[in-house]
Amino acid sequence: MKKFLLMALTCLLLSIPCAAKAATNVKVPVLLYHVVSTNPDPSNLYQYNLTEFKKDMAYLNANGYTTLSIDQYYNILNKTIPMPNKPILLTFDDCTEDFYTNVYPVLRQYNMKATEFVITDFIDTSWHLTSNEIKTVFNNGIDIENHTTHHLDLTTLNYNQKFSAINDATAKIQAITKKTPVYCAYPYGTYDAATVSILKNLGYKAGFSVSNTLSTDSDNKYGLPRICILNGDSFDTFKSKVSIGH
Ligand SMILES: [Zn+2]
C-alpha cells in the first residue's frame, strides 16, 4: 500500500502518466544502430544514413517517446520504477567516431538519452571515439557500457579469454568514466552459459543480444533482444520496428 501511494505521489509530482501501476505487460523497444554516416556504403547494412537517423529521432520526439537511461530501462523491466509514456532505449555499438560527430548532436538537440557500447581496444584508434570524447558524452547523459575488449565472438573463446574480454573492458571503461559498467552487449549477439556466468560473477546486471522483438519483463536478463536498424530500412520499416520489433 505504502509503495502504491509513493508511486502515485511520484507520478503526480513528476507529471508522469501513471502507466506504471498497470505495468503488467512491459514491452520496450531497444534499438541498435552502428555507424551513422553522411555517406554510407550502400552495400554495408551497418552504415546508416545520417539524414534517415535525423528523421527517426524527429519521429520519436514528435510522437511522445521517452528515451531511457540504461538503468531506467532495467528498472522498468523489473517494475521498480514507474513506466514513462512510450519508453524506448537507444543503443549504439562499436564506438565509431561518427557517434560523436553525427549522432551526439542530434541526441543533444532533442535532449535524448542513449547508451554507447564500446570496444575498449578500439578507443583512441583511427575512426573511433577518443577517451576524451567518451568522457564528454558520458558527462552529458550518455551511458558507456561494455562491448568487450576486441569484439571477438565470445562463443569461440575459452573461459579465460572470455573472462579477459569482459573484465579488461570493464577496467578500461571504469578508468575513463569512473563508473563501473554493469551491462554488456555481446559481439554479434552471440553468447553461451560460461559468458553469462562470468557476467554474473563480475556483477553485471544484464547482457544484450540481437533479435527482432520488443524486450519484455519476462525476458532472460542475460539475453535481452535489441532490434537492428539497418541501411536500407524504409521509414515505414523503422516505425514498424519501433512499434512491434520488426
Ligand atoms: Zn559490435
UniProtKB/TrEMBL annotation:
It comes from the Bacteria. GO terms for molecular function: hydrolase activity, acting on carbon-nitrogen (but not peptide) bonds. Its main location: secreted. It is found in: Secreted. GO terms for biological process: carbohydrate metabolic process. Keywords: Plasmid, Signal. GO terms for cellular component: extracellular region. This is Uncharacterized protein. It comes from Clostridium felsineum.
